[in-house]
UniProtKB/TrEMBL annotation:
<protein>
    <recommendedName>
        <fullName>Nitroreductase</fullName>
    </recommendedName>
</protein>
<dbReference type="InterPro" id="IPR000415">
    <property type="entry name" value="Nitroreductase-like"/>
</dbReference>
<dbReference type="InterPro" id="IPR050627">
    <property type="entry name" value="Nitroreductase/BluB"/>
</dbReference>
<dbReference type="GO" id="GO:0016491">
    <property type="term" value="F:oxidoreductase activity"/>
</dbReference>
């Protein structure tokens, strides 16, 4: 491959990576390029200081970025040779991705790649349109490909419990100054020029009531921020689903991020979007309660609502020249 072609391919892979979802859109990653290898690193300055002490959510975010790189490279006709957590002495090094042999991209990979910049996180209610069972089965298969399990929560009682856990965690966190500072730090004012954090237009100005209600983060913190009501007035809770893993190591968190991103991209291709609710997973005892009482002992990595919405969503990302560096000679 010519050097200019290699550069173009690597730039496209990093461009795809930065469009991955991340907690509060912190974009907690950076990329170092050496020849035909990309090093994906966690950016400690962008980790939540209180809500993510263990780094679990940061590693899930980095796992989603890694999945986007893998998909992008295959879509461009190159296999991705991945090593996850390759160096115990460099805990910030999440993975290395080396350009492998030429491959013929399959139709599904091209479909997923086409959703990388289209996918958006939702922060309001959904329409009443149900998600077809066949699509839910496909989403579960996508998660399984990366070693995780996606479970739609069918029990009304279990949905109420998850909603109550989310509400309890949100209420406690809203009263805790340090938790609140994590959220305020990443809430963007209207017309802000920042290329990270949660845009004020990405959530409704007035809370949308669903039944049962899943508490939303208060990024506005009492200020009159938020999107126009007519764009964000759907009131269905949507389908509740939980992404779990059998173990709870750093490798599992990265795998969960890869599984999550495959699910989100496949869902986006069918116009299904996701709203995330991680409040209860940031509190050890509530996460453990959900694991033991609702999830058969598996570790919850993401609680989400899935559904259809007329809102196209707003996305902002840092340009790759802010997250990329060349380390080769």
């Amino acid at each position: 491959m010519r050097p200019e072609d290699t550069t173009k391919t690597i730039d496209a892979a990093i461009q795809a990576a930065v469009w991955a979802p991340s907690v509060h859109n912190t974009q907690p990653w950076s990329f170092a390029v050496d020849g035909e290898e990309i090093a994906l690193r966690a950016d400690s300055d962008r980790k939540l200081r209180v809500g993510d002490i263990t780094g679990r959510e940061q590693l899930i975010s980095c796992g989603a970025a890694l999945e986007n790189m893998r998909i992008a490279l295959r879509a461009m006709g190159r296999e991705a040779l991945v090593r996850v957590l390759p160096d115990p002495d460099r805990p910030a090094l999440m993975a290395t991705v080396r350009l492998g042999e030429p491959v013929e991209p399959d139709e599904h990979t091209l479909m997923l790649y086409g959703q990388v910049e289209r996918r958006r996180t939702h922060r309001a209610g959904f329409t009443d349109q149900p998600i077809p069972d066949r699509l839910l089965d496909e989403l579960a298969q996508q998660a399984a490909l990366e070693g995780a399990r996606l479970t739609p929560i069918r029990s009304t009682a279990a949905v109420r419990v998850l909603a109550a856990l989310t509400e309890a965690a949100q209420e406690v966190q809203a009263q805790a100054t340090l938790f609140t500072m994590d959220v305020i730090r990443w809430g963007r004012a209207p017309e802000s020029g920042r290329a990270d954090g949660v845009p004020a237009e990405a959530y409704p100005r007035e809370p949308v009531t669903t039944e049962p209600a899943f508490a939303q983060r208060d990024y506005a913190h009492g200020r009159p921020w938020g999107g126009e009501a007519d764009r964000l007035t759907a009131t269905s809770t949507g389908l509740i689903a939980v992404l779990t893993t059998l173990a709870d190591s750093r490798e599992d968190w990265i795998a969960a991020g890869q599984a999550l991103q495959r699910v989100l991209l496949h869902a986006s291709a069918h116009d299904v979007r996701a709203a995330f609710h991680t409040q209860s997973l940031e509190m050890v005892h509530l996460r453990e309660f959900a694991r033991q009482e609702l999830l058969s002992g598996e570790y919850p990595q993401m609680i989400m609502r899935l559904g259809f919405t007329p809102d196209e969503g707003i996305g902002v990302r840092r340009p790759i020249d802010e997250v990329r560096e060349d380390t080769g000679a």
